[in-house]
TrEMBL record:
Gene Ontology biological-process annotations: DNA transposition
MF term (GO), any: DNA binding
Domain Transposase IS116/IS110/IS902 C-terminal: start-end pairs: 2-70
The organism's place on the tree of life at top rank: Bacteria
Protein name: Transposase IS116/IS110/IS902 C-terminal domain-containing protein
Length: 122
């Protein structure tokens, strides 16, 4: 469901210069509030498609809580949760999922659960 919604939301993957640009387009990056000398990093910007953002967040939440099999993505998100908190980890993982899905779509590669499997495939 998430992959189908991602394909219909992004539509043309080549309109992004790199895969990291997908996160801000979906509103999954922090908003900056600047005034004079003060700069404050706020919550996520919420621009872009809200339904796609919700689906990515739910997929990230399920990956963190329900999926028993460990992957390099889950390990990365758990490290984020340890450093930044339990509430920020699903949003960071949702952004990372969007980047990974875009890169897979552009390259046509397959997702590997572990880094070792990716090294063997190369």
């Amino acid at each position: 469901m998430v992959a189908l919604a991602f394909i219909s939301t992004i539509d043309v993957p080549s309109r992004f210069r790199n895969s990291k640009a997908v996160g801000p387009a979906l509103g999954l990056t922090p908003a900056l509030h600047q005034s004079g000398e003060s700069t404050r990093v706020g919550r996520i910007s919420l621009c872009g498609d809200g339904m796609m953002r919700t689906l990515l967040y739910e997929a990230a939440q399920v990956m963190l809580t329900r999926v028993k099999k460990w992957s390099w993505l889950k390990a990365w998100a758990m490290n984020v949760a340890k450093r930044r908190g339990q509430q920020k980890a699903p949003v960071a993982l949702a952004r990372r999922l969007a980047v990974v899905m875009h890169r897979i779509w552009i390259d046509g590669t397959k997702f590997h659960w572990t880094r070792e499997a990716a090294q063997i495939a190369i």
